[in-house]
């Protein structure tokens, strides 16, 4: 405190920070990237442990015996699904009722803002079927959910069969203290969204659905099951939900504990855990696993039906069966016993999962990186913006230059208000256009050009984004001579503080998205001035823009998944990612698209305007 309260010491500290501003910024950037890459090194991570006392031991005896019967039920389900050409609602209702459950259905429909070409759908109509197994030993105020999506083709039939097999087995047990809801939802995320909105009496997406006739208690936890074969080699745990939300870490710990007990191979991001952490290949494997989690979390989309539960503060995850060429095989009976053990432990909960972490990264299922470890990496990048803002503040606070007569040059020291307000207003209006025009103008674009609705939306978004590059010319025309040397400094000071607050708020909600944006936007914000070489600087600024960040992320994600693509395939995938991001916003409430369009892109345009300041 003495350093800041003493004017002389404070002045000396400010002089030091301004004199060494550029070297300190470079060191902070390198340190931030290095810190983040070091998080995957096992000695720097924490070993997972169970924080919830009610789930601290796996000492339960799993007795589920009906794996073969579940496989046969799955095949029967597949036959009826093929016969009716979709969800066999009547067969599911009769089958669930035969297992002693209260069975209900829910109809829903949703018209998409534009056709989803990836799944070839526009007007979606479907039915959810769910059965409630009432708790025999409790007042039925709490519930658990086990769901399996009904997907087209032969996918996930075995998951429905196992769900029905577990329902029959659970019906004969007397120790349940919570209602258990067995849900088969149609049209994946859309059906799940309709069911959750109906269950909680909310409608946040404008979907049409019939009210639920039966409800259980307050949902404490949920698991989604995805199985597409009778035997699997490993079970993959999917955690990433809507807007980068993650379930409580104890849910992942519970899955890992029972996999270890029963002897099932378990993976995260499709990667098996390795023990050679001290080797280069072992560290590279951990980095690859962690970066896959970062990329998925940054996308803001739910990577399974469980991702929509997290919006309602329900801890949920997806368990996905993987059938690869490994010799190790796990049958349906073993998977059923694993789920039985997990649900018996969740049945013991006296309160919601809350004692473990909600913000974390996982380089493996046995180790995690807590928020206290990874936030300093982001802080080192964000402090660069504050250091550059401090340097500009000192320059603006310096006494103005004087003329030969000893009079202060007011033109150099007093920028007009329009020099700051005009770029701010125009850049944000461009962001509003980027958010609204792609959906509003799709019919006009289809009528004028030989493109589909989806292509019209994506190409309109790209056209609006590119037209924003004309912002400096529009700004200079409106300024009418208001631009001064001090004007761009004031504008950059505002833009730096704006970007610092924006990235900080984003990182608190979705660290992965905030960190990826900081990696590209912080260097662009730090170096740009009107006095750098225009052509080279403009090229660098475009490469570091949000659109190119997304393009690089698409190729990088494919490399992480060990599925590299050519430039043409990558470009088509890039266009698909844009359309899916817009759809995710309007269908499920993903915030990534409005964040980029309304805040991040306008902020980048401010720095583009500074580069061409006149």
Can you walk me through this structure?
With 614 residues, this protein is α/β, with parallel strands linked by helices. 54% of the residues lie in helices and 14% in strands. The protein is built from 22 helices and 13 strands. It has helices spanning 2-5, 7-19, 21-38, 67-84, 89-98, 157-171, 188-199, 249-262, 280-299, 332-347, 371-397, 410-413, 418-440, 442-448, 453-467, 471-479, 485-509, 511-527, 534-543, 546-560, 567-588, 592-611, and strands at 46-47, 102-116, 121-133, 142-150, 179-186, 208-209, 218-226, 234-238, 266-268, 271-272, 315-322, 360-364, 367-370. It has a 10-stranded mixed sheet with strand order 6-2-3-5-4-7-11-8-9-10, sandwiched between helices. It has a 3-stranded antiparallel sheet with strand order 1-13-12. Strand 2 and strand 3 form a beta hairpin. Helix 3 packs antiparallel against helix 11, helix 4 (67-84) packs across helix 6 and helix 11 packs parallel to helix 18 (511-527). The longest helix is centred in the middle third of the chain and has 27 residues, at 371-397. The relative contact order is 0.12. The mean pLDDT is 87. Heteropentamer. Part of the GPI-anchor transamidase complex, consisting of PIGK, PIGT, PIGS, PIGU and GAA1. Interacts with PIGK. It holds the Pfam family Gaa1. Its main location: endoplasmic reticulum. Keywords: Disulfide bond, Endoplasmic reticulum, Glycoprotein, GPI-anchor biosynthesis, Membrane, Transmembrane, Transmembrane helix. Pathway: Glycolipid biosynthesis; glycosylphosphatidylinositol-anchor biosynthesis.
